[in-house]
Amino acid sequence: MSRPTLLSVIELGGYPDFRPLYEKAGYNVLTETRMRKAMATIRKKTPRVIVAEFNFQSDFRDRTSSLESMMSVVERLPDTKVVVFYEKEYAHQFERLLNVCSFHRTFTFPIPEEELLACVQALL
After folding, report:
1. Organism's domain of life (predicted)?
2. Which domains does the chain have, with CATH numbers?
3. DSSP 3-state assignment of 84?
4. In the chain, which end has fewer C-beta atoms inside a 10 angstrom radius, N or C?
5. At what angle do helices 35-45 and 66-74 cross, to 10 degrees?
6. Distances in Å between the alpha carbon of 110 and those of 30, 94, 106?
């Protein structure tokens, strides 16, 4: 039996590599570092879970971040769940995104590894 796919979108990073945690949970892990490539991967592979960062980008005129663009692709995939990491300092901007997008779970940095593991295991 093949393992479900988890797509990890790491644009900025600066936190631990959670690949071993995702693999321990039972996933085949794909990693992308650019949102355009991530969106292409989502279309081709239809991951069960996507773990991505919210990176507020003030230079966007009509969006808060590239995460919003990704969600326009994911909304057509009802079985794909999205988990988002964000910085507390950007909570106000992230709230704007929460008004238009639905995420399975959100975590602020630092990421509690045991909670993240339980979260992705529950989505198997």
Report:
1. Bacteria
2. 5-122 (3.40.50.2300)
3. strand
4. N
5. 10
6. 22, 16, 12
